[in-house]
Amino acid sequence: MGVNQLNHIAIIPDGNRRWAKNRRMTSFFGHREGAKTAEKILKTAFEEKIPYITFWGCSVNNIVKRSKTENIFLFKLFEKHFKNIIKNKEIHKNKVKINVLGRWEEFFPEKTKSAIKKAINVTKEYKNLHLNFLLAYSGVDEMTEAIEKISKSNPPVGGLNSKIEINEKLIKNNLWTKNLPPVDLIIRTGEIPNWFHWSDGFMMWDVINAQFYSTETLWPDFSTEEFKGVVKKFSGVERRMGE
């Protein structure tokens, strides 16, 4: 059996609110601890030299269905951590390019958007590693928008009666993730192994051959040791790739 090369890892960090509830705290404390965990895990991922890392920060439903007070806290938390990214020595040392996908410009306040845009801008020339954040993200929205763009595209040479050839390349090129390679490994925390649920069509086009790892560990308790263990185990997993 060969050794699998881990090119793209996607992380669904679930469990911040449950972590806080278990400690009789408000959800704010869970989100704050979750942000600290994210920093540690991402630092470890840089050390492991994983070329592409995609981190799901929040969904559209998270923003629409949660309280205004909780959202304000989350927006301030995002603003703080994107400002930290700008000053983060590990980001600049490893030449990490920041990319943010989703409807964040539609839902986020100006101060948060400004911090995100600055982080994107100061790293735009970096090419060694790629750190992608999904903010106000929905896989359903992503796919719907791709189909709408294709349907409105110019007809091919041959006139209005000619048909657009729908193929994998065309679909991929119209996705928000058009510049990202397929996902090799997905880590989802806060879920019972073998019984985890999929959320909001998460990167549905890019995960078709991905390996899944779910753990009951809530995100704030997810350790760098467990992360390293998953990455190491992935190298020896048999990948059938649809066979």
Strand order of the largest sheet: 3-4-2-1-5-6
Helix content: 40-55%
Query: What integer value in Å does the Rg equal?
Result: 19 Å
- CATH class descriptor: Alpha Beta
- Global structural class: alpha/beta
The coarse overall form would be globular
- Count of beta strands: 6
Query: Tell me about the biggest sheet?
Result: 6 strands, parallel
Task: Provide the β-strand percentage band.
Answer: 5-15%
- Give the H and E element order: EHHEHHHEHHEHHEEH
Distance between the termini: 16 Å
Into how many domains do the coordinates divide? 1
Q: Give average pLDDT, whole number.
A: 91
Q: Looking at CATH, which topology would you report?
A: Undecaprenyl pyrophosphate synthetase
Task: Give the name of the CATH superfamily.
Answer: Decaprenyl diphosphate synthase-like
Number of discrete helical segments: 10
The low-confidence parts are: none
Compact summary:
The protein is α/β, with parallel strands linked by helices and 243 residues long. The chain has helices at 16-22, 27-47, 60-65, 68-87, 89-93, 104-107, 110-122, 139-151, 168-173, 224-234; strands at residues 8-12, 52-56, 96-101, 129-134, 185-188, 211-214. The longest helix has 21 residues, at 27-47.
